[in-house]
Amino acid sequence: MKDKLVRLEGTKSLAEKFKRLCVKGVYNRNLNHPQGRLVRVLFSNTLRVIHNRELTDVSGRLLSYSSFCLPGTTKCFVTSAGDFFPCEKVAGIERLRIGDVRSGFDVERIIGLLEEVTQIRNEFCSACWAFRLCRACFYHFYGPSGFDKERMSYFCNGIRKETKSSLKLYCSILEENEEALDFLALP
Ligand code: SF4
Ligand code: SF4
């Protein structure tokens, strides 16, 4: 328990340091400022997703698999038996086998998987406040026997908690300096 509290305190003070440097405009002037490299690496990725989020009304729109990789294009993990999986994190999950060295990629299976996750997203994510910022993927949705609702729910709690903290940090920085996070804008 004490260890956990110390870890939480550590994260809080790192977030404070990141905030201080952002508010002073340090990263806008020099992204690789030597005093702030570690905290920039720790917090930039999640805040970048928030900063570049789509600002259109998405209510009523079907949710796509947008946070997922396109299996076989981003990465491909090849097992010693010659089977293909989207990556090392999901290797061995039969439902996610996307081909093998003998017959190549199974395009129908890949399309089927994308349709499957689109359905899952629409069923479970459409009422979730975090869906626009969520980066869950096959790894969070699938266990050894395929789609696993309990596994997903376990990760969802963590994702929502992390998203909430990131939103708090994001807003608290912009409250002090509206231009502080300009360095996160995608070209
Ligand atoms: S971690 Fe998820 S998104 Fe990334 S390659 Fe693996 S399955 Fe795809
Ligand atoms: S947190 Fe869970 S329910 Fe919410 S969008 Fe992400 S995967 Fe879907």
Pick out its properties.
187 residues, alpha+beta, four-stranded antiparallel β-sheet, two-stranded antiparallel ribbon, 6 helices, elongated
Number of helices: 6
How many angstroms does the end-to-end distance come to?
A: 43 Å
Task: From the alpha carbons, calculate the radius of gyration and give it in angstroms.
Answer: 20 Å
- The level of helicity is 40-55%
Please indicate the percent range of residues in DSSP E strands (runs of 2 or more).
Answer: 5-15%
Number of domains: 2
Q: Structural class of the secondary elements? A: alpha+beta
Task: Describe the global form.
Answer: elongated
Mean pLDDT: 89
Main sheet summary: 4 strands, antiparallel
| Total strands | 6
Ligand roster: iron/sulfur cluster
Describe, in plain words, how this protein is organized in 3D.
By secondary structure, the protein is α+β, with helices and mostly antiparallel strands. It folds into 2 domains: 2-57 and 167-184; 77-164, no CATH class. Helix content is 49%, strand content 7%. The strands form 2 sheets. A 4-stranded antiparallel β-sheet has the order 1-2-3-4. A two-stranded antiparallel ribbon has the order 5-6. α1 (2-23) crosses α6 and α3 crosses α6 (149-176). It is elongated.
Brief rundown of the structure:
This protein has 187 residues and is of the alpha+beta class. It has helices at residues 2-23, 26-29, 37-51, 107-124, 138-141, 149-176, and strands spanning 77-78, 83-85, 99-100, 104-105, 142-143, 146-147.
